[in-house]
Amino acid sequence: MMQKSPPMRTALPLIVAAMALGCSSASAAQTTIPERYADTTFWRLSQELSEPNGYFRSDNLVSNETSFQWVVPSLAKMTRANGVYLGVAPEQNFTFIAALKPAVAFIVDIRRGNLLEHLMYKALFEISDNRVDFAFRLFGRRPLDGMPAATGIGEVMDTLSTAPPDTAYARTVLDGIIRRLTKFHGFPLSAEDTEYIGYVYESFVRAGPRLRYNMGSGRAGSPYGRMNMPDFATLMTETDSLGVRRSFLASDEAYGTIREMQLRNVIIPFTGDFAGSRTLRALGGYVRDHDAVIQAIYVSNVEQYLFQEPDGWRKYYDNVATLPVDSATVFIRSASQGYNRRQSTNSRQNELLCPVKTHMDAYAAGKIRSYWDVFEYCR
């Protein structure tokens, strides 16, 4: 959530910015990243490269960024055979991943709860052949007989929004999620882990597609989250600048990309602090050791909070400096509406693509001293 608006500036269109990054299809060394990770490898990487559970003031079960799809057309032009995606937070990552089609995606969040939510999503993708069944399972509503798998996402969300939860069905789905993770994959989840997954799933069931970003403890607050935030249905049915719906649930292709990656265990969640001493650096070393390059770093507005700490932002950029990137690598940043009105006037926040190398050169030269300075390099 953004707290204030930076000074107004004239930003170049995203497509121009993407072209200025350089050709993403340039030849590169053949990556040695596996096409599929064994369950044991998935779990070992996720746990051994993670840091201790940290604190954030929100459960953050869903995104609050309504214009995230505006950068998708540019991201779709940045696919590469040896690309690696690095992101933070919950479901918005799936839309970016579907566009980039990386060899592997790493999702890092300071809260272990986010890791567990992504495990819930993983199981749901794996047991749902199509996006309609996925959506009904996610919200604990029994799928309607005769609803085609190709039904538009708007109709799916409208139907779910008026359907009451089926508690017996939801209990069956939750049991299936836990079995998929613990029995099929063999992940040694603790009782506390499974309890939290249950809490997350029950939050989706209780609120349905009206579930919103929550700025307080979800266990004590509104079952729907903060009412001035976009709900899940809005996020899934938003569009890009041309009116095209590009969320991971908006098309069979996008959903299929994510499901296939989940089945291959190549979307891996971690617990880690962007300013921490271990996770980002360890992931960077892993990517480099496998002859790969990071395509994009979805940082949302994490930098806003890091600049509120005495040295958090410096530690973070020192970590970024160790990552294997090239001239095409971008930060995907979330900026407040006041910064860039070229995007949706209905959005609280706007997404920007920002060349990592340009930013890091400025950081090394001492030109970045405040949070708002980072947007100078999003032209």
Labels describing this entry:
single chain, 379 residues, alpha/beta, six-stranded mixed β-sheet, disordered N terminus
Short description:
With 379 residues, the chain is an alpha/beta fold. It is 40% helix and 10% strand.
Record the SSE blueprint.
Layout: H1 14-20, H2 39-48, H3 72-76, E1 83-87, H4 92-100, E2 104-109, H5 112-127, H6 131-138, H7 153-162, H8 167-184, H9 191-207, H10 232-237, H11 252-263, E3 267-271, H12 279-289, E4 293-300, H13 302-306, H14 312-320, E5 330-336, E6 349-355, H15 356-364
Parallel strand pairs: 1-2, 1-4, 2-3, 4-5
Antiparallel strand pairs: 5-6
Helix pairs in contact: 4-11, 5-6, 5-8, 5-9, 5-11, 8-9
Order of helices and strands: HHHEHEHHHHHHHEHEHHEEH
Query: Which geometry do the CA atoms define?
Result: globular
Give the biggest beta sheet. 6 strands, mixed
Structural class computed from helices and strand pairing: alpha/beta
Measured as a percent range, the helix fraction is: 40-55%
- Regions with little confidence, pLDDT below 50 for 5+ residues: 1-28, 215-221, 340-344
Radius of gyration: 20 Å
Mean pLDDT over all positions: 88
Describe the structure.
This protein has one domain. The chain is 40% helix and 10% strand. It has 15 helices and 6 strands. A 6-stranded mixed sheet has the order 3-2-1-4-5-6, with helices on both faces. Helix 4 (92-100) links the parallel strand 1 and strand 2. The two termini are 22 Å apart.
